[in-house]
Amino acid sequence: MTDDTVLELSRQAFLACLKLGGPTLMVALVVGVGISILQAITQVQDATMTFVPKTIAIGLVLLVCGSWMLQSLLAYSGELFTRLPQFVR
């Protein structure tokens, strides 16, 4: 396995992680900032006000994007296992 192959595999793995984790992390960030602004405006400091909406929002994202995420992960894994004999040489 050459250095270029290792770099290419690392790049593909990093992009797959970004593609799979990005939607849920972005929704959690947006909801968290929105709730924090709401808490600052109303001066209500309750921990469940951030936890429950984030959990619901992430659950909705997984319901909407879950099949796409699974398809993407299966495609990446399938390509990796298909190319595995090339890496062993």
Low-confidence stretches: none
Largest pleated sheet? none
Helix-and-strand structural type: mainly alpha
The dominant shape is elongated
Percent of residues in beta strands:
under 5%
Rg over alpha carbons: 19 Å
Task: Provide the number of structural domains.
Answer: 1
Proportion of helical residues? over 70%
SSE string, helix = H, strand = E? HH
Can you count the beta strands?
0
Could you write a compact summary of the structure shown?
The chain is mainly alpha-helical. The protein has one domain (3-88). It contains two helices and no strands.
Structure description:
The chain has 89 residues and is mainly α. It has one domain. It has two helices and no strands. The chain has helices at 3-42, 48-88. The longest helix is centred in the last third of the chain and has 41 residues, at 48-88. The protein is elongated and about 65 Å long. The relative contact order is 0.13. The mean pLDDT is 90.
Break the fold down into its secondary structure elements and pairings:
Elements: H1 3-42, H2 48-88
Helix pairs in contact: 1-2
Question: Which properties best describe this structure?
Answer:
single chain; 89 residues; mainly alpha; 2 helices; elongated
